[in-house]
Write a structure and sequence with these properties.
Elements (H helix, E strand, L loop, with lengths): L3 H18 L16 H4 L7 E14 L2 E8 L2 E8 H4 L14 E10 L5 E12 L6 H4 L5 H6 L1 H7 L1 H23 L3 E2 L5 E2 L11 E4 L4 E5 L5 H9 L4 E9 L11 E10 L3 H20 L3 E4 L2 E4 L5 E4 H9 L8 H10 L10 H13 L6 E4 L21 E6 L2 E8 L4 H16 L10 H8 L5 E7 L1 H6 L18
């Protein structure tokens, strides 16, 4: 027995065939008349001639007349089709369904209920829908279905559509802020011989023409933008996609957007002031506010941001002094906290895992400073405390929402740290950084004092208080079998 969906689709396919038999192209490329936005057409006075186009979202027949709604991105307009106006053309309307795209021309009038309506004089079918919309027959069943058919999720969920309008403002406001501060927007390579600029496992691809394996970038061109500082640029930024072959979680994706900037003749103190101003600006521009409820945390980005120390904060929350602890003690504490870690993890990796357990309790916004050098392979050492670096992370709602530091520009120190990271990588730590000799050579020509900073779209997902997978238009899904 045929399902209801199969019956509906069969009916629509029959209508499609009848349209073709009548010589009507159900998928024309040229509109007979240019439409105006529905939002502007709704403002026209009674008796005005309008032409609008959109998707049919309601269809109600009353003998020789039909009331329908069509919708474009700007709004919804009621249309009135009647046989006395359309003559023989009226019979074609029997072949229309909810979901079809239609262009109509006619005069504006008000119904007895006061609804602005088009009294249709001419119409053109623009696209025949052969599948019913979800709310017509079964709805979107579950989260996975919504993610797989995101176009339908967006079609029937206006609130979700608004989220992505805000996301566009989020990135544009960030771009505008950086440009207003004198930063130059740049583009750096997505394919790299050496993946650098972050602790992450890269995706590997192959370049057929060069016959070499390459990596998809794991940072927003950090080592490339610092080469630009060597080249004489002083303020650069990039907004783009980066890729990390790591696990899925509420906060992590493998393919996501990030902004990074690099600023010569400035240090991490200068960067913190700029970034606090940036976040407040972007929040106001995007959401019109600075106060947010995020996963049980109450956060006010408009407040004065405080600072907390990496070593002291971990000690206060766990009793562990990371400057004195050994690997076995770290593993014991992590087991106590039921935190996952790999038996082969280095001390630096275990300390980072311990910190990630602690930060869940911090609402912020605060700057986390005082990071040990072993977990910060690209940051400059503090002159007064060489075992620590001039680095900060922004903590909001229990998670990291940005990372910046005074950039290491000592080529010898950088080379030694790279070699230490490469040793970790050779021993099985896939997130350890690779030795980039070409970058070290660039530093040998001289890079001015520089500060850098990066923030990903995780910040946006937190401000709208939804999992990051929900806050991307088309999340990656495992193929259906």
């Amino acid at each position: 027995m045929a399902t209801r969906f199969e019956e509906i689709q069969k009916s629509r396919l029959e209508k499609l065939a009848k349209l073709k038999d009548l010589g009507i192209n159900p998928y024309p490329s040229r509109l007979v008349k240019e439409p105006q936005d529905i939002s502007s057409a709704l403002k026209e006075k009674e008796g005005s001639a309008v032409t609008v186009a959109g998707r049919i979202t309601r269809w109600r027949e009353h003998g020789n007349s039909i009331f329908s709604d069509i919708k474009d991105e700007s709004g919804k307009f009621q249309i009135f089709l009647q046989k006395k106006n359309l003559g023989e053309q009226f019979k074609v309307t029997k072949l229309f369904d909810v979901g079809d795209f239609l262009l109509v021309s006619g005069k504006v009038f008000k119904t007895q209920a006061g609804e602005t309506t088009v009294d249709v004089e001419n119409f053109q079918l623009l696209s025949k829908s052969i599948r019913p919309l979800p709310d017509d027959w079964y709805g979107l069943k579950d989260i996975e279905e919504r993610h797989r058919k995101r176009y339908l999720d967006l079609l029937i969920n206006g609130d979700l559509k608004d989220i992505f309008r805000k996301k566009a403002i989020f990135w544009q406001s960030m771009r505008n802020f950086m440009i207003d501060k004198g930063f130059l927007e740049v583009e750096t390579p997505v394919l790299e011989v050496t993946a650098g600029g972050a602790d992450a496992n890269p995706f590997v691809t192959h370049h057929d023409a060069l016959d070499v394996n390459l990596y998809l970038r794991i940072s927003m061109g950090e080592l490339w933008q610092k080469r630009l500082m060597v080249a004489g640029f002083e303020r650069t930024f990039e907004i783009g996609r980066q890729f990390r072959n790591e696990g899925l979680s509420r906060e992590h994706l493998q393919d996501y957007s990030q902004m990074e900037f690099y600023w010569a003749y400035a240090n991490y103190e200068d960067s913190m002031k700029l970034v606090e101003e940036l976040y407040k600006y972007v929040a106001k521009q995007t959401f019109g506010k600075t106060e947010f409820s995020i996963g049980g945390h109450e956060v006010d980005l408009g407040s004065e941001w405080g600072r907390i120390d990496y070593v002291e904060t971990i000690k206060n929350h766990t009793g562990v002094d990371i400057t004195k602890v050994d690997i076995e003690e770290l593993k014991t504490k992590l087991k106590e906290l039921k935190a996952e870690f790999d038996k082969s993890d280095t001390k630096a990796r275990l300390i980072d895992t311990l910190w990630k357990q602690v930060r869940k309790q911090i609402s912020g916004p605060v700057f986390l400073t005082g990071h040990p050098v072993e977990i910060s392979p690209l940051a400059k050492r503090m002159e007064e405390k060489p075992d620590f670096v001039e680095r900060y992370q922004i903590i909001i709602a229990g998670s990291e929402m940005g990372n910046g530091y005074s950039e290491l520009n000592d080529p010898k120190d950088q080379s030694e740290r790279f070699m230490g990271q490469q040793k970790m990588r050779d021993e099985g730590d896939l997130e350890a950084q690779m030795l980039d000799r070409d970058f070290v050579e660039a530093l040998e020509y001289g890079m001015p004092p520089t500060t850098g900073f990066g923030v990903s779209e995780r910040l946006f997902s937190f401000l709208v208080d939804m999992p990051i997978k929900e806050a991307v238009l088309f999340p990656l899904m495992r193929p259906e079998k």
